[in-house]
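ok trying again, last paste got cut off:
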Amino acid sequence: MQCNTGGDAIPDSLSVSKIVTCHRCPRWLYFEGAVKFVESPGYTVCKQISYYLGKPLELEKAGIWQEIETILPSAEDATRILFEACIESCTNTSWRLPDEVDVPVESARLGIHGRVDKIFDGDEMSFAIVRSNEPPAAGVYATDRLRVACYAACVSETFGVDVDGGYVEYIPGGISRYVHPQPRDRRAMLKAIKTAKRVAAGDVPGKPMKAPCDICPHAGRCQTLPRRLSDLL
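nice, full thing came through this time. structure:
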C-alpha cells in the first residue's frame, strides 16, 4: 500500500469533521472554531473497542478496559456500563481485521483531509469509520453518508486507487454497514465544502430553514449572532 501523504494536512485544507458540521448547519461550524474539542467518554469506549474487533473480545476485554481507564482516569460507572454493553453487542458480530488504523488521508483536489479509522488493503481497498451512536433501523445516518463520501475521495486520492465506498461501524449496536455514496451524497459534500471554506474565510453564514437547533450546543449564542446586510435586503 503506497501513500502519497506524509501525514500533515495540506495548507488551507479543511478537516472532514468540519465539513460534516457545516453540512448540519453552517452556523454550528461558525461557532465551533472558538470551542475546544473534548472527546466524550462514549467515543473513547467505542474507539478503544474498535481496535480489537476481529479478535476474541472476551480475551481482550480486561486489557481494553485498562486502556480506557488510562485515557479516562476518572471514568464513571456509566462508562463501565456502556463498555460492557458494547462488548456484548460486538461479540455477536463477525468483524474484518484492518491492515492499518488511524491513517491520515487527504484530497488536495477538494481541499479536505482527515484520519480514517481503518484501512482494509485486500484485493480491493476499502475503509471503515467508527461511530459511537446507535445505528438507525436501516442504512446509515445522512451525516455518515457524507463522511463516507469525503473519506472515499480522500482515500482514493491518497493511495491512488478507486474506492467507491466504505463501512460505518456502529459500536454500541455491534453492526457494520457498507455505504456506496450516491451522486446526491457527493453534491451535498461539494456544497458543504464550499460553504465551509466561506466560513473559514470569515463569512457570517445564514441560518438554514431546517437548522438542528434542538441538538446544537451553540443554539443560545446563535440567537444573538449579528445579521448580515444581505439578510436584511
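cool. The domain at 14-205 is CATH 3.90.320.10 (Lambda Exonuclease; Chain A). The beta strands are 14-15, 100-107, 112-121, 125-131, 166-170, 175-179.
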